[in-house]
Amino acid sequence: MGTAAAGVLAVAVLGTGCGGGSSDGASGAPAVVSETPSVEVTDTELPFSTEDPYATEEPTYTPGPAGEIDKLADEKGWSVDGGYFSASAFVQDMCDSLPVSAIQAESRPEWLVDGGYLAGDGKAILQAGIPKLCPKWTETLKQAVSGNYDHWYTNGTYVVSSNPSAGDEDETIPPGTYRAEGKMDGCYWERTTEAGEIIDNNFATSARKITVTISASDGQFTSERCAVWKPVK
């Protein structure tokens, strides 16, 4: 072989290395491996709440009698007016108020009734709550609920009647003996007939105790600047 033959051989070798093919069709380029990229999952805050807006939680109650009252009120569906945040708060206010209220113008059962505290669910709440929080006032509550309690009387003119019409109780006084006690300056009282004629009267410039008996035949009883008139037992 001469120089020309060597050149042909070199070209053939180069052609074989760069042709990218072979007799079995396999490619001479490196194989490409396809891999699925890994994604790191992290906790991210969603732009909306996943909580159920209608989900409800079991209410919790203060341990003890107050919690028992509130739980019972919820079970019974009782509600209380007056701005109290719970049934037990209403009962506790009555327990705190009874010792100091209704001692100047009304008996305590009368105070509960006239104050409207037995209206609506108030009666049921107090009947369930007072025996638990202040049992010493249970009898007072029973009197208020039954309507069988003493009425006290202050300034004014009252019609004498043993059976007042409904709604006129505050304007009538039953026959009986009444006593006013306390510091009284310029106390005037009088018993009159239905026609307004004076049966008996008195003006006390200064007194500590005054007792008056009102008869069933009297028409009216009037009191001015006196202490509270309470029935004498």
Provide keyphrases for this structure:
alpha+beta; five-stranded mixed β-sheet; 6 helices; 29% helix; disordered N terminus
Large-scale geometry: elongated
Poorly predicted runs: 1-27
Biggest β-sheet: strands ordered side by side in the sheet: 2-1-7-4-5
- The share of residues in helices is 25-40%
Rg, nearest Å = 48 Å
How far apart are the termini?
A: 156 Å
SS strand fraction: 15-25%
What is the string of SSEs from the N terminus onward? HHHHHHEEEEEEEE
Strand count, sense and barrel status of the largest sheet are:
5 strands, mixed
Total strands: the figure is 8
Structural class by secondary-structure content: alpha+beta
Number of helices: 6
The average pLDDT is 82
SSE topology:
Blueprint: H1 3-18, H2 65-76, H3 87-97, H4 108-114, H5 122-133, H6 138-146, E1 156-160, E2 172-173, E3 176-184, E4 187-192, E5 198-204, E6 207-214, E7 220-224, E8 229-231
Parallel strand pairs: 1-2
Antiparallel strand pairs: 1-7, 3-6, 3-8, 4-5, 4-7
Helix pairs in contact: 2-5, 3-5, 4-6, 5-6
Short description:
This protein has helices at 3-18, 65-76, 87-97, 108-114, 122-133, 138-146, and strands spanning 156-160, 172-173, 176-184, 187-192, 198-204, 207-214, 220-224, 229-231. It is α+β, with helices and mostly antiparallel strands.
Describe the structure.
By secondary structure, the chain is an alpha+beta fold. Among the domains are: 65-146, no CATH class; 156-231, no CATH class. 29% of the residues lie in helices and 19% in strands. The protein contains 6 helices and 8 strands; from the N terminus they run ααααααββββββββ. It has helices at residues 3-18, 65-76, 87-97, 108-114, 122-133, 138-146; strands at 156-160, 172-173, 176-184, 187-192, 198-204, 207-214, 220-224, 229-231. A 5-stranded mixed sheet has the order 2-1-7-4-5, with no helix packed on it. A hairpin with a 5-residue loop joins strand 4 (187-192) and strand 5 (198-204).
